[in-house]
Amino acid sequence: MVESDVIVAAGGVIGRLNDENEYEVLLVHRPRYDDWSWPKGKCEPGESLIDCAIREVEEETGILTEVGPVLCVLTYLDQLKRSKTVTYFALTIVTISEHQPDDEIDELAWVRLKDVDQWLTASDDTQVTTALVAHLKEQHS
């Protein structure tokens, strides 16, 4: 496999404090795979990881974000056994528009951080949770 065969994607974690002052994150449901995951998508030719993360997250959630630090990078084989690398960023909400359900993302869910790993379908996605927890601890130390 040559380097160009690797699928490059980016996404991120949008977090906020809920009414009970608990940290919660936004997950997306993809009906095609019937799974819950972090918002993400493939980079377009010539697109930076940051621009991809902002675009994909807004397309999937209706939320425009600012990009913070990289939380982690996951590399795995997709459903077609192609190598895929996804860079996940910590994201901050800029503006929120109402999400219109579609064939790609039919549902959004704000999930308490302590419950998120029970929602995530792919076990690899829990590495993003671990990186987020470490990032939040670092911010508050």
Task: Describe this structure as you would to a colleague.
- A hairpin with a 5-residue loop joins strand 5 (63-77) and strand 6.
- The protein has three helices and seven strands; from the N terminus they run E-E-E-E-H-E-E-E-H-H.
- It has a single domain, classed as Nucleoside Triphosphate Pyrophosphohydrolase (Alpha-Beta Complex).
- It starts with 6 loop residues before the first strand and ends with a helix.
- It is α+β, with helices and mostly antiparallel strands and 141 residues long.
What kind of sheet is the major sheet?
Answer: 7 strands, mixed
Helix content: 10-25%
Question: By CATH's scheme, which homologous superfamily applies?
Answer: Nucleoside Triphosphate Pyrophosphohydrolase
Structural class: alpha+beta
How far the N terminus sits from the C terminus, by CA atoms, comes to 43 Å
Task: List its traits.
single chain, Nucleoside Triphosphate Pyrophosphohydrolase, 3 helices, globular, 141 residues, alpha+beta, seven-stranded mixed sheet
Outline the fold blueprint.
Blueprint (H helix, E strand, L loop, with lengths): L6 E11 L5 E8 L4 E3 L2 E3 L6 H13 L1 E15 L5 E14 L10 E6 L3 H4 L6 H14 L2
Parallel strand pairs: 1-6
Antiparallel strand pairs: 1-2, 1-4, 2-3, 2-7, 5-6
